[in-house]
Amino acid sequence: MILKRLFRRSTTSERSCYEAIVAAARHPVFYADWGVADTLDGRFDMISLHAFLVLDRLKGEQQAFRQALVDELFADMDRSLREMGVGDLSVGKKVRKMAEVFYGRVAAYDLALGGAEGALEAAIARNVFPDGPEAESGPRRLSAYVMAQRAHLASQDTGAIARGVVHFKEPSP
Predict the structure, then answer these.
(1) Does 167 map to a domain?
(2) pTM assigned to the model
(3) CA separation for the pair 30, 16 (Å, rounded)
(4) What is the dihedral of CA 26, 29, 35, 39, to 10 degrees?
(5) Phi/psi-derived region of residue 145, left when phi > 0, alpha when psi is between -120 and 50, beta in every other case
(6) d(Cα 13, Cα 6) in Å, to the nearest integer?
(7) Residue 170 falls within a domain, yes or no?
(8) Quick one: which of 34, 113, 133, 155 has the fewest CB in 10 Å?
(9) Mean pLDDT in consecutive groups of 10 residues from the start of the chain, 173 residues
(10) Measured between alpha carbons, how far is 153 from 53 in angstroms, rounded to an integer?
């Protein structure tokens, strides 16, 4: 009990926000109904997509929080890899590769949001469904979900998000 208190991490605002991102990314409808692969890669793609949504919402403001949120994401990836038994020497390389993938996704989604109609759906199809979706409607549904989440997040207070209070809408099956 005493040791538990000594080693317990206090929850930071970026940790709370990250936990909300992970909870939203783990919604079963993405995997069971929309065809997202229920694999490490598929789950990482969904975490990346939800993290992008928060980063996009805070674009141009809360720079320190945005960076702390990304740092929290990669600290968690590091912890997860170690828990899965990846050796210390290769964890850094794997996290670096994940960072490249993450920043590539963020750039692709950001570009797609400013692009032509259908660009976001194409970016999602390419990144989340690289082998083709199990459900043909997966990219379309996920693209519509992203747009609905953007509108939902836009209505949330910036300060509240930076304090770790962020809410995502439930996806419809």
Answers:
(1) no
(2) 0.88
(3) 22
(4) 20
(5) alpha
(6) 20
(7) no
(8) 155
(9) 54 89 94 89 93 94 89 82 66 78 93 88 91 76 94 94 92 83
(10) 8
84 in any annotated domain: yes
| Class of residue 9 by CB neighbours under 10 A (exposed 0-12, middle 13-18, buried 19+) | exposed
Per the CB < 8 A criterion, the answer to whether 73 and 51 are in contact is yes
pLDDT score of 58: 93
Neighbouring C-alpha atoms within 13 Å toward the C-beta of 71: 9
Length of the chain: 173
Query: Which amino acid is present at 2?
Result: I
In this prediction, residue 55 carries a pLDDT of 95
On whether residue 168 sits in a domain, the answer given is no
Q: How many domains does the chain have?
A: 1
- Distance in angstroms (rounded) separating the CA atoms of residues 60 and 37: 33
Please enumerate in sequence order all residues whose Cβ is within 8 A of that of 37, keeping only pairs 6 or more positions apart, or say none.
31, 131
Helix (H) or strand (E) holding 74: helix 63-83
Owning domain of residue 51 = 11-162
Please give the pLDDT value at position 111.
94
Any idea which residue has 């990144």 for tokens?
127
